[in-house]
């Protein structure tokens, strides 16, 4: 029996019982029975016109929408995990689309819940505010999902990443300027870093799942339970290792061919020379953390060298001022190279120091070695 019909029947029953309870010989029973009749009539009319049951219906709708949202949230969590672990461009796009649709469906349910709550006789405004906040959070998640896809495909995605990149370009220029190097070249090198990052992500998302993933899965298969060697994967066989090597040779060649074709399609040319030394090759293979440590050391060395150069200039200028007559002949030959002039200068200074010391000491001291010359009147 429906809630409406049940309430009507209950109201009619109450009217009957109230009429039976009226005893005209007892005044108070008439009053009590009349009140019961009025209550029964009110409940009967409420059942007929929907009074009292409307809120129950609306609450039932809200609960159904809430159950649908809970299921959608479980599916969204699964999609997010799959998105985080995906490195295939088609799957990334597929998971992203499903996540956005999931969140929009949640919002549609929340909008229906808001409307149902507003239509209640006793509206709970706190609930409505809670539903609206959930919609705002879902809209933010939709925006973040789209930004995340852009970032995984090699873009920047967010304004925060734009700011970080802009700061890096500005810092690169200032560092090059202070070092006296080519600032434009430094900016182009920084651009190449971001460009190569995009190429790397594009190549990874386009080809690695097809060519590299099978190689990695072959490793796992060889050392997992049920492998050819048995013993829960502890005994790898020669055949399994040869199979991995054969698959590696085949797939890496295909990956290399695909990558070169992709660069041709994108019209991307190598930025460096192929005839590089072993040292340069080693530099290229340095990890990011090692490079950061080396950068800190080099910055310290730059500061140290700059300070030492300043100190040497001060010493040189002081000596030129004090011993100008002794070295004037050396600096007159402007055709000599700067290195030669500096060597001659240092030689002259050392000679003057030696002669000065020689004039102050004399050998043959009774206790051995040299002694200081003393003039006595």
UniProtKB/TrEMBL annotation:
Gene3D superfamilies: 1.20.1170.10. Residues 55-152 form a coiled coil. Keywords: Coiled coil. This is Uncharacterized protein. It comes from Trichuris trichiura (Whipworm).
